[in-house]
């Protein structure tokens, strides 16, 4: 008597579930527009924070950079986890960090760290250096990008919560 080699319904279902899980988890987070937007913002934040005064090296400077990085890493987590509740938590964190970043950038602007004048300073080797500060238009552009990202994250979070209600 020959053994039946066809898979049972249980085996087929198990294979389909494994393939579906594998497909969902292998979706590339770095192909997502939201992730690209937040990742691109990190380099812009690093660029503008080079204009911060030296006394902020251990104050506002690392807080701004950390908020930008944590926003992006939370978005990464959102796109890589499978459970709905984990997605919601990751998106909630991303939204909080984006709003935190917005507060930090506005505070730095209010403190005059982005003034549009040329700055002279002595570098680490003792040479006099000149650096042009950011323009008002550049600062407004970055603030607008952070506001848009925070808005998209909050809107997506509300939609995600409603889908499970």
Describe this structure in words.
This protein is mainly alpha-helical. It has one domain (33-164): 23S rRNA-intervening sequence (de novo design (two linked rop proteins)). It has five helices and two strands. The chain has helices at 9-25, 33-49, 60-80, 84-110, 136-164; strands spanning 118-122, 128-132. A two-stranded antiparallel ribbon has the order 1-2. Helix 2 (33-49) packs antiparallel against helix 5 and helix 3 packs antiparallel against helix 4. The radius of gyration is 23 Å and the shape is elongated. 19% of the residues are buried.
Strand order of the largest sheet: 1-2
- What name is given to the CATH topology? de novo design (two linked rop proteins)
The structural domain count equals: 1
CATH architecture: Up-down Bundle
What would the average pLDDT be, to the nearest integer?
81
What is the name of the CATH superfamily? Answer: 23S rRNA-intervening sequence
Q: Helix/strand/pairing class, anyone? A: mainly alpha
Largest sheet: 2 strands, antiparallel
Distance between the termini: 55 Å
As a percent range, the share of helical residues equals 55-70%
Strand content: 5-15%
Give the secondary structure arrangement, pairings included.
Elements: H1 9-25, H2 33-49, H3 60-80, H4 84-110, E1 118-122, E2 128-132, H5 136-164
Antiparallel strand pairs: 1-2
Helix pairs in contact: 2-3, 2-5, 3-4, 4-5
What descriptive keywords fit this protein?
165 residues, de novo design (two linked rop proteins), single chain, 2 strands
């Amino acid at each position: 008597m020959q053994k039946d080699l066809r898979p049972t319904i249980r085996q087929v279902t198990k294979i389909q579930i494994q393939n579906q899980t594998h497909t969902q988890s292998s979706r590339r987070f770095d192909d997502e527009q939201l992730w690209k937007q937040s990742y691109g913002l990190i380099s812009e934040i690093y660029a503008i924070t080079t204009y911060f005064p030296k006394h902020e090296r251990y104050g506002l400077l690392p807080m701004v950079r950390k908020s930008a990085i944590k926003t992006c890493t939370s978005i990464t987590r959102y796109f890589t986890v499978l459970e709905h509740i984990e997605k919601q938590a990751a998106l909630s964190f991303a939204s909080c960090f984006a709003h935190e970043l917005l507060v930090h950038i506005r505070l730095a602007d209010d403190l005059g760290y982005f003034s549009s004048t040329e700055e002279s300073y002595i570098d680490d080797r003792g040479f006099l250096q000149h650096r042009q500060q950011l323009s008002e238009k550049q600062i407004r552009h970055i603030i607008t990008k952070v506001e848009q990202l925070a808005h998209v994250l909050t809107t997506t979070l509300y939609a995600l919560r409603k889908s499970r209600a």
